[in-house]
TrEMBL record:
Gene3D superfamilies: 3.40.1280.10, Hypothetical PUA domain-like, domain 1 (2.40.240.20). Its EC number is 2.1.1.193. Pfam families: Methyltrans_RNA, PUA_4. Residues 71-227 form the Ribosomal RNA small subunit methyltransferase E methyltransferase domain. The lineage of its organism: Bacteria, Pseudomonadati, Bacteroidota, Cytophagia, Cytophagales. GO terms for biological process: methylation. It comes from Flectobacillus rivi. GO terms for molecular function: methyltransferase activity. Belongs to the RNA methyltransferase RsmE family. Keywords: Cytoplasm, Methyltransferase, rRNA processing, S-adenosyl-L-methionine, Transferase. NCBIfam families: PRK11713.6-1, RsmE family RNA methyltransferase. InterPro entries: Alpha/beta_knot_MTases, PUA-like_sf, RsmE, RsmE_MTase_dom, RsmE_PUA-like, tRNA_m1G_MTases_N. Specifically methylates the N3 position of the uracil ring of uridine 1498 (m3U1498) in 16S rRNA. Acts on the fully assembled 30S ribosomal subunit. This is Ribosomal RNA small subunit methyltransferase E. It catalyses: uridine(1498) in 16S rRNA + S-adenosyl-L-methionine = N(3)-methyluridine(1498) in 16S rRNA + S-adenosyl-L-homocysteine + H(+).
Length: 233
């Protein structure tokens, strides 16, 4: 099943120029052929092509299914982006394939990147959503400073921070997060500063470990996402 993305499907029964070109030029679909369209918020639509144009492919909705592929939990990843943006794009792609609800980027003391192009990240996320047959596009937030992040924390049943400082830490897999919401905080390659760790703990974040190995930032984000998914199967 090939999925097409139209976030405003209730207003516009028409594919974007890029999606139209793929449907008509690449897949060679014709009028009266059926396609499946997702809206990014859980809607899956069985549709029929009414105008097979490679720049403006029009369709009519035949059947609607809401809540397609909805997860029984909510996962929010807050992460300091790496200097090499390709590594973050790779992580976003894999996290979306696994299942993630929200991604926030933060700028910490040891961060190597202070800006990030959200449209580019969203494009990667859309491709991964379609490829993995999902109907939910995660919310992707603009990068913010550590100070701003602490002033308004995301809502969640569990707030945890994965850091490398010595001290007692619970394995993430042992957090009772089944069918709950969790916000996981991942630092840059140089880890969080001791001050940042203490500030997060004072805000209610619990220290966690992702295992014995020392992981790259993007690997840590992916491991956290995968762990939450496994615990909710």
């Amino acid at each position: 099943m090939n999925l097409f993305y139209q976030p405003e499907i209730q207003k516009l029964q028409q594919l974007s120029e890029e999606e139209s070109r793929h449907a008509i030029k690449v897949l060679r679909l014709k009028e009266r052929d059926e396609i499946h369209v997702i809206d990014g918020v859980g809607g899956l639509y069985r549709c029929e092509i009414s105008k097979a144009h490679d720049k403006k492919c029009e369709f009519r909705i035949l059947e609607t299914k809401q809540g397609f592929g909805q997860q029984p939990y909510r996962f929010h990843l807050v992460i300091a982006p790496t200097k090499n943006l390709d590594r973050i794009e790779w992580m976003v792609e894999k996290c979306v394939e696994i299942g993630i609800d929200e991604i926030s980027f933060i700028q910490t003391r040891y961060s190597e990147r202070k800006e990030i192009k959200i449209p580019r990240i969203e494009k990667v996320a859309i491709g991964a959503m379609k490829q993995s047959l999902k109907a939910y596009l995660p919310k992707i937030n603009e990068i913010q400073t550590w100070k701003n992040f602490l002033t308004k924390l995301p809502e969640a049943d569990f707030h945890v921070i994965a850091h490398l400082e010595e001290g007692e830490r619970t394995l993430l897999k042992d957090i009772p997060m089944q069918k709950q919401s969790i916000c996981v905080l991942i630092g840059p390659e140089g880890d969080f500063s001791p001050e940042e760790i203490q500030q997060a703990l004072s805000k209610g974040f619990k220290p966690v470990s992702l295992g014995e190995s020392r992981l790259r930032t993007e690997t840590a984000g992916l491991v956290a996402c995968h762990t939450a998914n496994l615990l909710n199967q």
